[in-house]
Backbone:
């Protein structure tokens, strides 16, 4: 069998006395959508941080696309095809929506030691950026200053920036966090459309979203993977229900 | 707020500066030529600082170090009989760039208060080195035998020629600065200030761009230092003193961070205030202090934002 796109082995991270990641093994196959669920404090965001390269693990390896990326910086991993969205919206607030995405395109279009030509006049940056904004449903909001976009739009913009780096794997940290029902539904539709084209690792609290999108689900509790399986199997797993979904309640 | 109007503000400022010698001549006040030349030299230094401080969010409290290095690069060769500006000025920029490369390579690994403190420490170190080199005047400094020689028709000993040389340099800096800020490089530098973790996440290794901006800013300020030595016809290590770095920061904030015209306005306001108020009292900063507080509280974009068509760039 071919090596999975992402292969994590024995990942460990502790912050002082707190073990945030405690020997995590995860495989994500090409084209798959893996959801990581777990109660608050289970170490989901720390795990994403280690996968993206913002948090250095104490032990373990992360292999991505056939190479060990454990020691690589976030920027270097981006060039290998890893893209992330942040749990707390992270955008260039003073830039327009289009400028945000164009900068992400620029980051993958050679070096930025160019001092003379106006970046806003470079069609090779603007046109792909415009197309991606269109794709995530922000086509009409291109010139709006990003910090003034609605919360849901800012989350869409994060996805657009991730897509602009032409990723092989999308790491999405709670993409519908803080969204209203409408916004949340739009985001699910967007992610559903991306599923076929991208491999996705999704951290999410909203079980409706998880069951709507995931091919497989891993349950993280106290930094350990409690169970991994198909959505239906996870829904029925007694241990998972006790630990997370709430015993006795239908999921 | 729009770009054409910002450009207009800059153009108006340059035109105003261009007619200063005429007015000074008509009013028979040659002193104003001297004062406004000094303003433009500090404007060059302030604009260079604003590239890293206002646009890039890197608060360097050691920018005057390059002012001093630039001045030494004029005065020391002059001491040995080398007066050509074509040697002195490139030397000023190269040495300042080199110093900025070393200082930046260390300090840019930190951020916030640590960055401020390390840049301050480096500048103070250079200041004390300057004080201790007796052959170069030590604490007292030394007189510059003659101004840099440009050769041909441009004789800096002529106050008008010197004035317009400085003005031309400021104009070129503002023009090039506008291009650089809008180009890919400037976009990355502005993004550093806006959200550096995000920049890393989309694949930009920010350090090399920050360092490049730091070196560029240092080199330009080194040129300002070379001009300053010519302006005062004197070299003193106090050009590098940390209070001088503070003055340049005040100019940037007063005029408007993150704009190119702002630091020019800030330098003019600062030095004009100094000039007018110092005639009344040596404690002229008693007036400057509250003014700065008012600007920071009520006009975040600096004095420039109070002008029609002024204000910070739109992202």
Residues:
């Amino acid at each position: 069998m071919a090596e999975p796109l992402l292969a994590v082995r024995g990942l460990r991270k502790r912050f002082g006395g707190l073990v945030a990641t405690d020997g995590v093994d995860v495989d994500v196959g090409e084209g798959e959508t893996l959801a990581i669920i777990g109660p608050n404090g289970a170490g989901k965001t720390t795990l994403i941080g280690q996968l993206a390269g913002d948090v250095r693990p104490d032990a373990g390896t992360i292999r991505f696309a056939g190479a060990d990326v454990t020691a690589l910086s976030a920027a270097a991993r981006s060039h290998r095809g890893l893209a992330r969205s942040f749990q707390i919206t992270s955008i260039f607030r003073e830039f327009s929506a289009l400028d945000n995405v164009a900068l992400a395109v620029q980051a993958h279009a050679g070096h930025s030691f160019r001092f003379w030509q106006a970046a806003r006049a470079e069609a090779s940056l603007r046109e792909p950026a415009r197309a991606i904004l269109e794709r995530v449903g922000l086509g009409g909001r291109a010139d709006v200053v990003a910090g003034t976009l609605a919360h849901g739009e800012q989350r869409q913009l994060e996805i657009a920036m991730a897509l602009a780096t032409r990723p092989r794997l999308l790491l999405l940290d709670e993409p519908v966090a803080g969204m209203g029902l409408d916004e949340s539904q739009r985001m699910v539709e967007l992610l559903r459309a991306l599923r076929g084209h991208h491999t996705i690792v999704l951290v999410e609290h909203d079980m409706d979203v998880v069951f709507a999108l995931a091919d497989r689900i891993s349950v993280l509790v106290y930094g350990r993977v409690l169970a991994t399986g198909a959505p239906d199997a996870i829904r029925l797993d007694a241990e998972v229900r006790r630990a997370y979904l709430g015993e006795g309640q239908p999921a | 707020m729009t770009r054409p109007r910002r450009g207009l503000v800059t153009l108006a400022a340059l035109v105003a500066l261009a007619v200063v010698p005429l007015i000074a001549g008509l009013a028979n006040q040659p002193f104003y030529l001297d004062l406004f030349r000094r303003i433009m030299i500090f404007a060059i230094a302030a604009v260079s600082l604003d590239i890293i401080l206002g646009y890039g969010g890197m608060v360097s409290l050691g920018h005057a170090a390059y002012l001093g290095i630039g001045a030494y690069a004029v005065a020391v060769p002059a001491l040995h009989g080398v007066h050509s500006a074509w040697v002195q000025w490139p030397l000023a920029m190269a040495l300042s760039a080199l110093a900025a490369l070393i200082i930046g390579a260390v300090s840019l690994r930190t951020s916030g208060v640590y960055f401020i403190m390390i840049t301050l420490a480096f500048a103070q170190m250079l200041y004390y080195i300057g004080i201790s080199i007796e052959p170069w005047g030590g604490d007292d400094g030394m007189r510059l035998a003659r101004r840099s020689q440009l050769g041909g028709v441009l004789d800096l000993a002529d106050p008008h020629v010197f004035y317009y040389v400085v003005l031309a340099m400021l104009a070129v800096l503002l023009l090039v600065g506008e291009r650089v800020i809008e180009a890919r490089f400037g976009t990355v530098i502005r993004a550093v200030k806006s959200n550096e973790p995000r920049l890393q996440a989309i694949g930009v290794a920010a350090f090399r761009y920050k360092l490049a901006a730091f070196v560029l800013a240092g080199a330009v300020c080194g040129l300002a230092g070379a001009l300053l030595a010519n302006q005062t016809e004197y070299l003193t290590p106090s050009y590098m003193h940390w209070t001088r770095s503070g003055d340049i920061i005040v100019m940037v904030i007063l005029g408007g961070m993150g704009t190119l015209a702002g630091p020019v306005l800030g330098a003019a306001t600062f030095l004009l205030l100094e000039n007018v108020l110092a005639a009344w009292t040596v404690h002229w900063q008693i007036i400057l202090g509250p003014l700065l507080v008012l600007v920071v509280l009520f006009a975040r974009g600096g004095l420039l934002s109070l002008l029609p068509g002024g204000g910070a760039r739109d992202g």
